[in-house]
Design a protein that fits this description.
Helices cover about 30% and strands about 20% of the residues. The protein has about 425 residues and is of the alpha/beta class. The chain folds into three domains: about 170 residues, Adenylosuccinate Synthetase, Chain A, domain 1 (3-Layer(aba) Sandwich); about 90 residues, Orthogonal Bundle (Adenylosuccinate Synthetase, subunit A, domain 2); about 160 residues, Adenylosuccinate Synthetase, subunit A, domain 3 (Adenylosuccinate Synthetase, Chain A, domain 3, Alpha-Beta Complex), CATH 3.90.170. The structure holds inosinic acid (IMP).
Length: about 425
């Protein structure tokens, strides 16, 4: 029995979708535990590109069970659209492949409206995905959210709507100057979604714990990344969920003692979308080159990603916060053409050398990276099948990342396709 967690070790977009797709072969169930459709996991199957926002990437494999845990916030319209798209492309033929936890919170129209209205204020902008994620989690913590189990009971849903909507409309109209939302329209539309989703609803904790007892392997698919965690990230420039390891247990009802491996996904360089500090960001031609070579545009919003060198200080933070047992280094091939590559080993802050990631975003903002420079390999590594096939400078670069992170590399990705992957060790044993 092995239960492995995939966690973004940077600011999201590290290539988790592909790694989950690779590890799905070894797991019976694939589980999302936090976030919502702010995520965009891109997979390449043959010549086809599939982008999933909510449904675990394991859905592309027949016979695998995909679970959306109680810690996720779910937009029913997006969820049903994703199912429809998958069915049209010939994936996901069996409804029993999918389980949605009854306790998860539903993203309602006011969540999106409030998210977008808040982002209009340039002085307080976070650069959110505009999907209503933050406001949905606010209502969950504020004990006024609507759960999936409420949505499927028409009387209860009506009562909750009547309790919540007047307050939301007051905020929308009087504070943000936006149009109010209509109760009847929401009731009809969302009751319709509930009827279609009802067949997928169940208890994630019971189902997963029964699977663990039966000796099945589980794969937990994290969304976003460690540095966007609501508690441990670069607050307030974070998402509103626990993206670190603790989110697995609160978001699924599976106890921490069952987790056997935690793989942190990191690009061979670094990117960030939205606002917030990013010490190794490159504002020059090199940043532009990385963006072009890595096709660094958001899978959810299409926004260009900010690009920079690999930040070992940030990775050490991810190793510590999550107890990472392995690293998966993705997009190594994006560096193919470079004659030299930099890695940030520490920060300089007001004349001090910092080797630990500062907890305060204002301090991080004023940190300057201290770089070590490495030779590039200036050759195409996309068809390597083992570490031995890689040119010496690429092997040296990976060895240095491993040493600086203090965590062994389990996997190296050298292209978008499944076969462009070097598995160094397998967390499923
Ligand atoms: P929210 O999650 O939409 O509230 O956005 C909050 C912050 O997290 C913004 O900076 C977003 O760009 C960032 N973010 C949210 N989801 C992702 C993701 O899947 N990848 C990368 N950044 C994300």
């Amino acid at each position: 029995m092995a239960n492995v967690v995939i966690i973004g070790a940077q600011w999201g977009d590290e290539g988790k979708g592909k790694v989950v797709d690779i590890y799905t072969e070894y797991a019976k169930q694939i589980v999302r535990y936090q976030g919502g459709n702010n995520a965009g996991h891109t997979l390449v199957v043959g010549d086809e590109k599939v982008v999933l926002h909510l449904i675990p990437s394991g859905i592309l494999h027949p016979g695998k069970r995909c679970v959306i845990g109680n810690g996720v916030v779910l937009d029913p319209k997006v969820f049903l659209g994703e199912i429809e798209g998958l069915k049209q492309r010939g994936y996901f033929k069996d409804d029993s492949q999918l389980l949605v936890d009854s306790n998860l919170h539903v993203i309602m129209p006011w969540h999106k409206a409030i998210d977008l209205a808040r982002e209009k204020d340039a002085s307080r902008k976070i650069g959110t995905t505009g999907r209503g994620i933050g406001p949905a989690y606010e209502d969950k913590i504020g004990r006024r959210g609507i759960r999936m189990s409420d949505l499927v009971k028409p009387q209860l849903f009506r009562r909750k709507l009547q309790e919540v909507l007047p307050e939301k409309n007051f905020l929308l109209e009087k504070f943000f100057g936006e149009a109010p939302l209509d109760e009847e329209q929401i009731f009809t539309e969302y009751s319709g979604y509930a009827k279609q989703i009802e067949k997928y609803i169940g208890c994630c904790s019971s189902s997963l714990n029964a699977a663990i007892l039966a000796g099945d392997n589980l794969l937990f698919e994290g969304a976003q990344g460690t540095l966007l965690d609501i508690d441990h990230g670069t607050y307030p420039y974070v998402t509103s969920s626990s993206t670190c390891i603790g989110g697995v247990s609160t978001g699924t009802g599976v106890a921490p003692c069952h987790i056997t491996g935690v793989i942190g996904i990191t690009k061979a360089y670094c990117t960030r979308v939205g606002e917030g500090p990013f010490p190794t960001e490159l504002h020059d031609e090199m940043g532009e080159n990385l963006r072009k070579a890595g096709q660094e545009f958001g899978a959810t919003t299409g926004r260009p990603r900010r690009c920079g060198w690999f930040d070992a200080v940030a990775i050490r933070e991810a190793v510590r916060l999550n107890g990472l047992t392995g690293l998966a280094v993705t997009k190594l091939d994006v560096l193919n053409e470079l004659d030299s590559i930099k890695v940030c080993t520490a920060y300089s802050y007001k004349g001090q050398l910092l080797e630990e990631f500062p907890r305060d975003a204002d301090i991080l903002h004023d940190c300057k990276p201290v770089y070590e420079e490495f030779d590039g390999w200036q050759s195409n590594i996309c068809s390597a099948t083992s570490m031995a096939d890689l040119p010496a400078p690429a092997k040296a670069y990976l060895a240095k990342l491993e040493e600086l992170a203090g965590c062994p590399i389990s996997l190296v990705s050298i292209g978008p396709r499944r076969d462009q992957t070097i598995q160094v060790s397998n967390p499923f044993g």
